[in-house]
Amino acid sequence: MSQADVELLRPELVFFDLEANDAQELFDGLEDRLKPLGYLKDTWRAAIGEREKNYPTGLACPTAQIAIPHTDPVNLERPYIAIVKPKSPIKFQPMGGMGDEVEAKLVINLGIMRDGGQVEMLQKLMGIFMDEAKSANVLSQTTPEGMVSAFGGYLA
């Protein structure tokens, strides 16, 4: 993981107040917040919805249920990592299409533009959520600054 990827974690990209009934509503809310900040192209919303439909990103890890939606860099204006801790869990289809729906308590939207960066980040995130203490620390965060600090410490 490059230091540049860790620098994509910013308090302005951490959301605790997003309410959504499903992944599509979550993407609408993210677009409303990220587009004015200059992170997304007009194609992002349709692209992330289509990618999620074809390649679901819900993960039922031993310590938490999460989702890691992302899309191709061509749909981004600039790189980012957005973190959403929704008011109530959001249902995502399971990665690989096998198993029950995932009730994601945390959604990490990757907007990485570096070649191979998304795969590397997915591996790092899996390491966090396979570890009970790290996962508990991340899930216990209640401020954007705390969330950035927790993730930054594990991803560096």
UniProtKB/TrEMBL annotation:
Record-annotated PTS EIIA type-2 domain positions: 7-154
InterPro entries in the record: PTrfase/Anion_transptr (IPR016152), PTS_EIIA_type-2_dom (IPR002178), PTS_SugarTrans_NitroReg (IPR051541)
Superkingdom of the source species: Bacteria
TM region positions: none
Record protein name field: Galactitol-specific PTS system IIA component
Lineage: Bacteria, Bacillati, Actinomycetota, Coriobacteriia, Coriobacteriales
